[in-house]
Amino acid sequence: MFILSIVFMLALVGFSSGTLPKHLDPLAPDTIYFNGKVITMDEDAANAEAVAVKDGKIIAVGSNNEISKLKGSSTKIVDLENKILLPGFYDAHSHFPSSGMDGTVQVNLNSPPVGPIKTIDDLIIALKDRGMETHEGEWILGRGYDQTLLAEKRHPTSDDLDKVSTELPIYIAHTSGHLAVANSAALKIAGITKGTPNPSGGVIVKDPKTGEPTGVLEESAMGLVSKHIPNVTEEENLAAFKKAVQDYISKGVTTSIIAGASKQGLVDLQKYQKQGLLPLRVTAMGSGWGGVISPGELGGFVTGFGSDMLKLGPVKMSHDGSIQGYTGYLSQPYHVPPGDDPNYRGYPAQSREELTKRVVELHKAGYQIAIHGNGDAAIDDILYAYRTAQEKYPRKDARHRIEHSQMARLDQLDQMKELGVTPSYFVSHTFFWGDQHRDTFMGPERAAMMSPLKSSIERGIKFSIHLDTHITPMDPLQAVWSAVNRISRSGQVIGPDQRITPLQALRAVTSDAAWQNFEENIKGSIEIGKYADFVILQENPLTIDPVKIKDIKVLKTIVNDKVIYEN
Ligand SMILES: [Zn+2]
Q1: What is the pLDDT of residues 465-511, one digit of tens each?
Q2: Does any domain span residue 91?
Q3: CA of 390 to the centre of ligand 1 (A)
Q4: Which pLDDT score is estimated for 9?
Q5: How far is the CA of 382 from the centre of ligand 1 (A)?
Q6: Is the pLDDT of residue 567 over 60?
Q7: Cα(310)–Cα(296) distance, rounded to whole angstroms?
Q8: CA dihedral angle for residue 420, residue 463, residue 95, residue 246, rounded to 10 degrees
Q9: Å from CA of 424 to ligand 1 middle
Q10: What is the whole-number distance in angstroms between the Cα of residue 468 and the centre of ligand 1?
Q11: Measured by CB atoms within 10 angstroms of the end CB, which terminus of the chain is less buried, N or C?
């Protein structure tokens, strides 16, 4: 009242409101974004031209005319110049900030278009280059090789890596993150020999003739070697973090969900946030907190703890591996088996009973749970565990997740609907491994049904889509493009019947992804009361030729009404 009357008096004595400081104009928006094509992603996907924002939140959405009337003396005006304003992209599953390690701490061993490696010789040369700057006591690390894209069509072995060095330990991770190769020096440090038994949930691959380890380590066997790798230095950590931030915000990401953060990872994020270095919002799934996850090991914090900038998300678990690594757990054999066993179906990370026991415990403690499941046999076990947990301790709207859900069958989608389970699909698989799935891993029929988005929509199942960075590069528009086109590397359409519309795909990187993370009231659409987290695009993904969606330029990324990236 007092302030209003002062405004009134000033007006009477002839001051123009244009000279009023902000505290005397308390109701005016801080910012008006106008003259744009605003795709709100609200329930009706309504269009608008302008948005008014105050204190980091949206206070009005409408036409240029309506919104411009709200302008106060201190309001900043942003002319969108007819460009596209969308809610900021919501990355539902990736591994921020570890993508920043690629090309810094770890040699980039990806094949085109992500990296330069075409043959095992290329890989050896790249590692040798790194070896020149590696000192005694240090390791040579690499990441991202994909045997299906190497000319030799096989995994590198410790013999190959010994051509780089037999003195320095070498450890390189497969693009899927579910396999790795160690050289003889690294195997020696880990004490792995002919006689070492497989750990539970993993395989030390051995030569069928000699019985010697080949250097290839699957799933939990990777840990036998990786636990000996020295920690990165603080400078390396910070450099990788900064690189990852740029990778994400330059692609329009305003929220990222880390699909499994260590306790140290979270401590680092909090430190960087305090230093003002974390411009995007991050939700961390708890995982790896001392190996076996139990509610006690999360210190009693449950899903939702934290702030809207840095939050604890679901508990992350894994129940199988990667299909292109032959470690995805299937109900029917692989199309072309990896060895002599025609019935090879991959394997689970633990028994159904062990999985269910943990899930029941975490569910009872109030967590949202997210379990990695690529193969349909893994998904069977995960659904069994979720069903058992709900029968024992019914909880409405738990929104338990299945990560990747790559080979989910239609009967499993029916169960997801019934149980209120929500998948997060690793949809860019159709581009990166669609050809290999059709020809080698799954065969044409099953490959056509990978990432069954259309069937999910038909059943009213809400889902998100993701890129699992650093498995594939961060780019939500690439995920949207894959969901809409399902085009493979060779240009074939993998499973045309499962293509969805651009609007449906955009929901899976905005409103539905926010819903999946219990944030539908604060993020994911441009509606009154939600955060002013936006991305501004050069062209409209709803009207552009669908094959060009991935080429649309991100012009600006905005969090809390603040520009965090500008092209
Ligand atoms: Zn992942």
Answers
A1: 999 998 999 999 999 999 999 999 999 999 999 999 999 999 999 99
A2: no
A3: 25
A4: 40
A5: 16
A6: yes
A7: 21
A8: -140
A9: 10
A10: 5
A11: N
**Residue 90 in domain:** no
Residues 358 and 497 in one domain: yes
Contact between 285 and 350 under an 8 Å Cβ cutoff? The reply is: no
Same domain, 28 and 162: no
Considering the domain boundaries, does residue 153 fall inside one?
Answer: yes
Sign of torsion, CA 232 237 243 246? positive
**How many Å lie between the centroid of ligand 1 and the Cα of residue 429?**
13
CA 33 centroid distance within chain: 29
pLDDT of residue 5: 38
- How far does residue 59's CA lie from ligand 1's centre (Å)? 36
Number of structural domains found in the chain: 3
CA of 95 to the centre of ligand 1 (A): 6
How sure is the predictor about 263, in pLDDT bands with cuts at 50, 70 and 90?
A: confident
Residues 25 and 55 in one domain: yes
**Arithmetic mean of pLDDT, 141-159:** 94
Look at residues 197, 226, 255 and tell me which one is the last residue of a structural domain: 226
CATH number for position 433: 3.20.20.140
CA of 259 to the centre of ligand 1 (A): 6
Residues 257, 379, single domain; the answer is yes
Ligand 1: centre distance to CA 426 (Å): 9
Q: How many A from CA of 370 to the centre of ligand 1? A: 11
Q: How far is the CA of 454 from the centre of ligand 1 (A)?
A: 22
Domain-terminating residue out of 202, 226, 250? 226
Whether 150 and 44 map to the same domain: the answer is no
Can you list the positions of beta strands (E) in 168-278? 170-174, 179-182, 202-206, 213-219, 253-261
Q: Can you give the pLDDT at residue 183?
A: 97
From the CA of 470, how far away is ligand 1's center (Å)?
Answer: 8
Q: Residue 469 Cα, ligand 1 centroid: separation in angstroms?
A: 7
465 plus 333 within the same structural domain: yes
Q: Is the residue at 353 inside a domain? A: yes
Say how many Å lie between the CA of residue 527 and the centre of ligand 1. 30
Looking at residue 44, what is its pLDDT? Answer: 87
Residue 389 and residue 519 in one domain: yes
**CA 513 / ligand 1 centre spacing (Å):** 16
How far apart (Å, rounded) are the C-alpha atoms in residues 109 and 470? 12
Q: Would you place residue 564 in the very low, low, confident or very high pLDDT band (cuts 50, 70, 90)?
A: very high
Task: Return the CATH number at 65.
Answer: 2.30.40.10
- Res. 540 pLDDT band, cuts 50 70 90: very high
To the nearest whole number, what is the mean pLDDT of the chain? Answer: 92
- Residue 47 sits in the same domain as residue 186: no
DSSP state of 437: I
Q: Which of 222, 205, 232 is nearest to 139 (CA)?
A: 232
Q: What is the pLDDT of residues 98-110, one digit of tens each?
A: 888 888 889 999 9
Which of 227, 206, 203 lies closest to 348 in space, CA to CA? 203
Q: pLDDT tens for residues 314-361?
A: 999 999 999 999 999 999 999 999 989 999 999 999 999 999 999 998
Task: Please check whether residue 71 is in contact with residue 105, taking contact to mean a CB–CB distance below 8 angstroms.
Answer: no
The terminus-to-terminus CA distance of the chain in angstroms comes to 44
- DSSP classification of residue 332: S
Domain extent, residue 66, equals 2-82
